[in-house]
Amino acid sequence: MEIRSARQLHRFSRRYWLRLVRLLIVMILVVGIVLPLLAGAIPTYAILHGACGDNGERISDFGHAWESVAIPAHVGGQFRAYFVPSTNGATIIVPPAHRSGLNNRLAEADVLIRHGYGVLGFESRVCAKIGSSSLGYKEVSEVGDALHYLQTRSDVDSQKIGILGFSSAGATSIMAAARYPKIKAVVAEGGYADMGGLVDGNARLRYPDTLIRFSIRVSYRLFAGISIEKLSPVNVIKDIYPRPILLIYGTEEPSLPGAHKERKAAGDNAELWVVEGAIHGGYMAVAAAEYEQRVIEFFNRALLQS
Length: 306
What we know:
Rossmann fold, 2 domains, alpha/beta, 8-stranded mixed beta sheet, 9 helices
């Protein structure tokens, strides 16, 4: 009996240590591999599938009457828009940044309207429930839908249409102008130049950064249905030439280096205004008068005096 007990104890001890080693291996895999992968996948999903950001503000809050519009979407369904007619003959499309609604960039739209420009603003595909966000590429399709709508209106001069977009919509604006020659002038604020490059960073093979970058790329393809390489305005900005481009960035935003690359890739039809002290989207907050002057003079030259 004593011999059997010793053998049983030995077997138990061996099984115990094997289980402990297996548990340790699993913990290492979870901490070392699974967690970095989740660190890339979860934020990517949240960014692409977040809730609509419409807070109920409208252009009428700035004292402007507007027409409620429903624009058919090429991808199916429709999205809401507002239209303020032009008094100077030119119209500006203001696409939504990320998951914005009809509240998107109203202060900027107000500037345009006060100077006689017509404005067509519309809600994001997320708010319209016609698809998840893609951070700019798929949204080009909605700009095409908006452009087609404007061309059906007798009160819009189809030769005097510009676009103004911020952040992801800044990227959308560049990619849309590269695709649609009917867009005659572009103001792009604070957008990324190349999302894949931003994800890669300095591309050093360091743990856990490499796994996180890999996860972001794979997750984006899985959740958005396209390669992250599609998010590259810098690769298509040259196709806008010779139509004029105004890039607006702040000194305090991380995407500023990409703005210089876009300016160089575009050609002499592009100009870059770097707003001293401005964070991402804070251009009017620190330089309202200069912002108004630069944007209006740009569109005047591009659409009214050309």
